[in-house]
Amino acid sequence: MTITTDNAIAREGFSANYTIRERILPPGHEDEDFACMEPLGMESGEITSEQISASSQYNSNWSPERSRLNYEENGWTPSDDTVREWVQEELSFVHLENTFWASYDRGLLTQPEKGEGGGGGGDTERQKILQRALKGLPSKTDLWRNASVDLGFLRFVTAIGTQGAISKETKKHYYVRSYKVDLSSNGEDWVTVKEGSKQKIFEGNHNPTDEARSFLPKQTLARYIRVRPMSWEQGICMRFEIYGCRTSDYPCSGMLGMVSGQISDAQISASSYADRGWVAENARLLTGRSGWTGQQTKQPFRNEWLQVGLETELLVLNNGE
């Protein structure tokens, strides 16, 4: 695995884009069993209109929420046909697998609903851990209102399918012939998809109605996706879908409990810690602005360790940092 930062300051933990160059499959799993090509929610509406934004819009008949694949009336069109325009979506829906659903409303964790594998005496501690983790998420009130929040919010992105549109008013045909794609893990620091050392130009449409699907050079983790038209016919107009999968959809890649709270604080230990703000249990992904660090007086840090007791024998392929 190669870790490459996306230039973000690690305010809420380690912020990075990473791709799997080689993965080891458990016995009985073959590559053809896994395609990572599920639509991620533009056409279905699982991605809400509040999660879609754009640099501008021509008018309300050509707004960003009309950029969904197969939307029946027009599509997204900016105020000006220039390469400075863009449309963006956030992949922020998340499901806590094998624990329970939770809602994040106005910065607060609401009462969770028990799901498959949920319930039991450990739920109270899990709620406390989840509430602590959610303090590290951005408090975008309008964006998150009544939304279900997935604490594993990154998605593998494999491909983008685009359409143009035929104007309901003028019957003119509009579509984008080529575009670039920017990805981000935090919505502030962006990386343009490259092929080799050059920014990739994705092939778009040749007519306004058929879907044109273009693949990323390699599956890439992202939370935010921005499409930037480069060339077009008559004017910029886009409808699109993002294809990929959840990180947990990869064989043997489900989270084992550091985020969800299935691994309790008592199961996490360390050789030392700097102070109460940097204890071992703060090593959970998305805990907030702190984490775990050893005693500062012991620099350079040698023979320091962090330990997690899984309480049962499990196959571990990698860790998220």
Question: What do you see in this structure?
Answer:
- GO terms for molecular function: semaphorin receptor activity; vascular endothelial growth factor binding; vascular endothelial growth factor receptor activity.
- InterPro entries: FA58C, Galactose-bd-like_sf, Neuropilin_MCO_CoagFactor.
- This is Neuropilin-1.
- With 321 residues, this protein is mainly beta.
- It folds into 3 domains: 2-92 and 152-249, Galactose-binding domain-like (Jelly Rolls); 100-148, no CATH class; 265-308, no CATH class.
- It has 2 helices and 22 strands.
- It has helices spanning 123-134, 141-144; strands at 2-5, 16-19, 38-39, 52-54, 87-90, 100-101, 103-105, 108-109, 113-114, 147-148, 155-163, 165-166, 173-184, 191-192, 194-195, 198-199, 202-203, 212-222, 224-233, 239-246, 268-270, 306-308.
- β13 and β14 (191-192) form a beta hairpin.
- The protein is elongated.
How many H/I helical runs? Answer: 2
CATH architectural designation of the largest domain: Sandwich
Largest sheet: 7 strands, antiparallel
How much is the radius of gyration in Å? 22 Å
Quick one: CATH class of the largest domain? Mainly Beta
> What number of structural domains do the residues give?
3
* Nearest-integer average pLDDT: 73
Any idea what the shape is?
elongated
Beta-strand level of the residues, as a percent range?
A: 25-35%
Question: What oligomeric state do the depicted chains represent?
Answer: single chain
CATH topology (level 3) name of the largest domain: Jelly Rolls
Task: Detail the poorly predicted runs.
Answer: 8-12, 17-21, 93-121, 136-152
| Helix/strand order | EEEEEEEEEHHEEEEEEEEEEEEE
